[in-house]
Every structure is written in C-alpha cells, then in structure tokens.
Amino acid sequence: MPVLVFDLDDTLYPELSYVHSGFRAVAEFLSPLLHQPAETLAAGMIAEEAEQGRGQVFDNVLRRHGRWTKTLVAACLRHYRQHRPQLALYPDAERCLARFAAWPLYLVTDGHKEVQARKVAALAVARHVRHAYLTNRYGRHRAKPAPHVFELICRREGVPPGQVIYVGDNPRKDFVGIKPLGFKTVRILRGNYAHLEADAAHEADRRIYTLDELTAEFVAELVG
Ligand SMILES: [Mg+2]
C-alpha cells in the first residue's frame, strides 16, 4: 500500500492562523505593560503583518508605545514561540486524513522543534499519522530538502521511494531533495508559495488546489 506523507504549515492548516494566535498571546503579555486592551494590540499586530510582513511587528508595537528595549522584544518572541496555539485543520485536510485513515500516513515538517510539536498537538494530527517527523530533532542539516527522514519512512514501512508520496506547498525545498531518489511529489497551491513558478527540479510531479483532489485513484495513477 502506498505511503502518504504530508507537510504541515500551509498544507494541512493555514500557517497565518498560527502567526495570529501567537500575536494574541504576545498581546496578552503586553497589555498590562502598555496599558492597552489585548484585543487592540493584537489587531494592530495583525494589520501590520498584513501590510509589511512579520519581521518588525514586536519592535514596532513597543516603539509606538515608547517601550522598546531589546529585552522586551526578546520577551515577546519568547511568548510567541512558547504559546499554546489554537489552530484548526483546513476542512479539506480533515476530509483527506479521514479518507485515508486506513493507510500509512506520516507528517514531515521543518522548523523550531518545540513550536512544531505544539502545532501538531493543537491540531491533534498525531492520532491520524503513524509518526510526525520534526526534522529539527535530527539536526538542522536534516531539514528539507535533505531526504533523511523520508528514508527513515521507507525503512520503517519496508517500501521503496516510488511508493511514497509527499504532499507539500513549498517548491523551494519540499520536492527538490527527494525527487532524484524516486519519491513521488504533489504540490498543493496555497499559502505564500502558491504563485511561485518553479523550475523542473523544484516542481512537483503533480499540482493540486485542494486535498480533495487526492483520491485513491489519483495515488494509484501516481505511483504506477
Ligand atoms: Mg509548508
């Protein structure tokens, strides 16, 4: 039976919802310090992120209130990273995981390992997959595009790479490392990379708009 492996951020849930959840946690922390309602602070951070990205959000909210210090910026970052997020799977992700419940399913995700572990817990995906591989646990050099954890999956399932399908959203790193080894790849067109044009080496074997397109027939055709 083919093995289905999913990326996490922007594949199974919208990553921006994590960012917003983190802003709300930081707003709760800053509220008594800045004498502002948390909701107002959170709304300001969310609006700024939409316009200018997330890079300077904590610096700017502190600056606006005349309270910028390196220590407070670091404290904001700590609250952001350590908060328990409130997240929900994309509805099509929920349906997909249910549809393939009897199949060997896995998760492979990069990023800060404690942060990713809290996302996995918040989304309750552990009950859907045989294992959630947080690549950071194996060292930074094992992050995508490195194929290391994908090879662990092959060994664990006793299947060749041609029987393993990876579904991800980021053509910069999700497919380029594993395609030469024979893994099958599916790109879901959503999130920050939806409009990125990738060259042949970085592009997936198939492109889909929703996980509803991932059916047993689709998989059978892909793995041949
Ligand atoms: Mg992703």
Automatic annotation (TrEMBL):
<keyword id="KW-0479">Metal-binding</keyword>
<dbReference type="Pfam" id="PF00702">
    <property type="entry name" value="Hydrolase"/>
</dbReference>
<dbReference type="InterPro" id="IPR036412">
    <property type="entry name" value="HAD-like_sf"/>
</dbReference>
<dbReference type="GO" id="GO:0016787">
    <property type="term" value="F:hydrolase activity"/>
</dbReference>
<dbReference type="InterPro" id="IPR051400">
    <property type="entry name" value="HAD-like_hydrolase"/>
</dbReference>
<protein>
    <submittedName>
        <fullName>HAD-IA family hydrolase</fullName>
    </submittedName>
</protein>
<dbReference type="InterPro" id="IPR006439">
    <property type="entry name" value="HAD-SF_hydro_IA"/>
</dbReference>
<keyword id="KW-0460">Magnesium</keyword>
<keyword id="KW-0378">Hydrolase</keyword>
<dbReference type="InterPro" id="IPR023214">
    <property type="entry name" value="HAD_sf"/>
</dbReference>
